[in-house]
Amino acid sequence: MSAAFSSASSSASSASDAAAQRRQASAFAPASVGNIGVGFDLLGHSIEGPRDVATVRRIEAPEVRIRAIRGDVPGADSLPLEAARNTAGQALIALREKLGLGHGFELELDKGIPLGSGLGGSAASCVAALVAANAVLAQPLSRDALYEFALDGESVSSGSRHGDNVAPMLLGGVVMATSTRMIPLSVPDWLYAVVVHPDQVLETRRARAVLADPYALALVVKQSAHLALFLTGLQRGDAGLLREGLVDLLVEPRRAPLIPGFAAVKAAALDHGALGASISGAGPSCFAWFASRAEAAAAAPAMQQAFADAGFDSRAYVTPVAGPRAEVIG
Amino acid sequence: MSAAFSSASSSASSASDAAAQRRQASAFAPASVGNIGVGFDLLGHSIEGPRDVATVRRIEAPEVRIRAIRGDVPGADSLPLEAARNTAGQALIALREKLGLGHGFELELDKGIPLGSGLGGSAASCVAALVAANAVLAQPLSRDALYEFALDGESVSSGSRHGDNVAPMLLGGVVMATSTRMIPLSVPDWLYAVVVHPDQVLETRRARAVLADPYALALVVKQSAHLALFLTGLQRGDAGLLREGLVDLLVEPRRAPLIPGFAAVKAAALDHGALGASISGAGPSCFAWFASRAEAAAAAPAMQQAFADAGFDSRAYVTPVAGPRAEVIG
């Protein structure tokens, strides 16, 4: 084990004594809302509801194997079983190599988050696998120390190291994710979100392609003001500042045309008192924030109805913005 | 007087009894660092040191007159005496019209902030005039209520309504300035700035022109992360976050080539422990932030030396980041 992890290891020594006995662990990771509109590739929050589960077993062979990928979400059986091509597999490969572990891992994934939904499905597999693997290490790491391996895993599916999904899954709630670290932000307990996932397919590649043309300074300045208002509103628990800030002028105008029904869904949320509404991750899921659970619960059916009017079934989740973090199960 | 100001007026009624007697008042407004690197047209902070002074007299004639503009800064005598073409004059015209005042104002300006320095000289004249005029009103307004008139004035000189200079002058310290309101931010008391003004001329028009070409998404995302780190660092009083955040990737790379010596000045600041350094407003002044007054004081001569090596005399100011606000004098 490299010296870089010695302090995390020693501070977790009592936990590690128990973990040393453990050969297998399961962990879940929640879904998440990436970007939160104004924080492209920077901000995200975890949500209650859909989750992926990973089961990791320590094996003698010095390798990472994926034994099975299950789940009743469409496309789960098409995910690559080759570890280096799978986000969760790659995260465990990176963990093994960095720590210089003598043993390997065998991994099983139970997908509960729909693929290509914009809810961080690949990130959740990656984080669930890391949290489960961490539980079978002789000297478990801190969540902060797991971050780099989660970014390694995410880069397999997205091609870039952005932590706006894995960071909130690792820490819970709203997290600012830079290329090197996670900064959890305070979240008022009255903040609730509605997340609606329609039965649409939106390829991430297409959702990224529309962002390629550069952005005018005036737009960037307005978006910066929105981000600043949003962060200040979050920190002060000020719904008025959040309402002013939670307006995405940069990415949403380019991606919204790719999501049939989006404009009506957003309008339904705002009509029901949403502080703001936008696209979750690369879409097609949409989210809206509310100043109470009751408002969120009342808005959810209206948002679903708007998708239905556009011809799409959907699932809706009502969740605290301060959603859960990934945890070992049982 | 319009209904919009009735609450501000009634809450200030005891002050207004005294003010009703007053026919003339003088006020100063401090210089400021616009943009603070990562908050283009959004963030600014006031500084101790250079300041403009305005003297306003209530007159019977229903008009705004500029009686004199004085000052030992180069170019002060070339500023327009026609009220509608002068930032301070235009601010008072807007104030008169909005409040429906029966009387007029006569204005004298004493310029202490060099023109075209990037230290908010035109904004300071405007704010000093408003604060002085407010002191001779029968029913003085709040600082928040003065903001719109300050933006009206600023637009005469810059052509756009941006409040990153007038807002910190009105409230003091670091202020987030949107098109409609000012949001003061908390500032750790150990934060100090060095502001160095070289004897160079940089036309604002030229400084704006280099910003015209649009910006790549990857750059915008990095800059957003820096802004978020900066705001979080300020709010938490975390020097490490400020150091990570106070890096301008958007505007500085385009403007720096217009300021001979800039790279060396910035390097000198960073060599002396600066948390970050960039261009003040549209330049050519430069600023750097430090975690103590002692560090700032030690860095100032080195920053001046770097300008001297490039062939430019300069003035340096060491100031708390939580600088003063405009006030009535005497």
From TrEMBL, chains A, B:
Associated pathway: Amino-acid biosynthesis; L-threonine biosynthesis; L-threonine from L-aspartate: step 4/5
Catalytic activity: L-homoserine + ATP = O-phospho-L-homoserine + ADP + H(+)
Keyword S-adenosyl-L-methionine: no
Enzyme superclass (EC): transferase
Keywords: Amino-acid biosynthesis, ATP-binding, Cytoplasm, Kinase, Nucleotide-binding, Threonine biosynthesis, Transferase
Pfam families linked to this entry: GHMP_kinases_C, GHMP_kinases_N
EC number of the protein: 2.7.1.39
Residues covered by the GHMP kinase C-terminal domain: 231-308
Gene Ontology MF annotations: ATP binding; homoserine kinase activity
The protein's name: Homoserine kinase
Species of provenance: Lysobacter antibioticus
Gene expressing this chain: thrB
